[in-house]
Amino acid sequence: MGERPVRHRAARERTLRGARYTTAAGASALRSWLLLGAFLFTHALTALLVGAPLLRRLTVRLERSAERDIRMARAHLGQDTGSDGGPPPRTEFWNSISWCAVNSLFGLACMFTAFVLAVGVAVSLTCPLWWWTLPPELQVSPGGYPVDSWPAALLTPFVGLVYLGLFVYCVPRLADGHALLARRMLRVPDRVRLRTRIAEVTALRQTALEAHGMELRRIERDLHDGTQNRLVAVRMHLGLIERLLTEDPERTRELITVAKGAAEEALGELRGVVRSIYPPILADQGLATAVTSLASRSAVPCSVNVEGLPRVPAAVETAAYFVVTEALTNVTKHSGATSARVTVREHGGELTVEVTDDGRGGADERGGSGLSGIRQRVASFEGRARISSPPGGPTTIEVRLPCAF
């Protein structure tokens, strides 16, 4: 008894999804007609040496239109389109022009079929309500079935059910066929995919090197400004102690106390630098405990959801830890929030970190808020970062890091 409503709901959703897709395919087909016509006209103008700049722009438009169609097809087929919102690899020109020619016919055919069936359903089901208002010279004939009397009119809903059955059967299959054809025709050749992947890896390598360089400069700055100065002070005090050791024992004891204090401060700062490279709490107790500890020390009340979080590779844990650190620092310094929430979960080989606050929003990555650093650190792992901060809030930082190596 419970399976039938589930099947009916699934069929309804599939039909609605197919109807939306065929409508979009029709709009895409109309766009293809316009682009093809403009392309052919502009191609003819190039013979007069006046259409070359416009032809280049139309070529870009054709490729972008094809990219939009392949994204739409992948989304309909339930395939990954890139959760970070980025476009798929750019299609080749001849693939794009071939697809526009085919789509201008098949896309319109899909939309026209869906439209005719939908009109047939609407007319047939509602015919008994209005057929009698038409003048005698006009006769309704849904599906070739003439309606000229009340008995005939009362039978038209059965014709509507036939139309509805055809709609439910045909429209999802037309949508699937269009999407599969788009995927097949706009499939990126292996050489283009390889070239794109090489470019992505090169960009990621450069981002990782920049992030690594920034981290090294930060460590160097911390050591230079803090620990090194403390150790220089210790050395100076030891020199004074050596000089006053026999002349002024009382002064020597004071200097020893000062030197010990400076050495302890240097040691504390050195430990802080080491913790900033890889916090010991991560190695000892894992990311869940480390994030909980961070939230407990936050100046803004912060709730944490890390239930069931497994151990992931150390490099990923470190990146996630510093994302939370930087995000909570921004919450304290810039947001004016009264509460924050941190959620860390792992699913399907991907670690997701989400930090949300109820502050004023309007976070600007160019304003020195550390958000660009978060993006760089995440990009070095081929991860994705989404930052939403509309004026008035809330601000949400969502980071996804692959952790199944």
Overall description:
There is one protein chain. With 405 residues, this protein is of the alpha+beta class. The protein has nine helices and five strands, in the order H-H-H-H-H-H-H-E-H-E-E-H-E-E. The chain has a five-stranded mixed beta sheet with strand order 1-2-3-5-4, with helices on one face. Helix 1 crosses helix 3 and helix 5 packs across helix 9. The longest helix is centred in the middle third of the chain and has 55 residues. It is elongated, with a radius of gyration of 34 Å.
Spatial order of the strands in the main sheet? 1-2-3-5-4
Mean pLDDT: 78
Shape estimate: elongated
N-to-C SSE string, H for helix and E for strand: HHHHHHHEHEEHEE
User: What's the alpha carbon Rg, rounded to whole Å?
Assistant: 34 Å
Q: Give the termini separation.
A: 44 Å
What's the helical proportion of residues? Answer: 55-70%
Count of helical stretches: 9
How much of the sequence is in beta strands?
Answer: 5-15%
Largest sheet: 5 strands, mixed
Structural class: alpha+beta
Beta strands, count: 5
Taking pLDDT < 50 over at least 5 consecutive residues as the criterion, the unreliable ranges are: 80-89
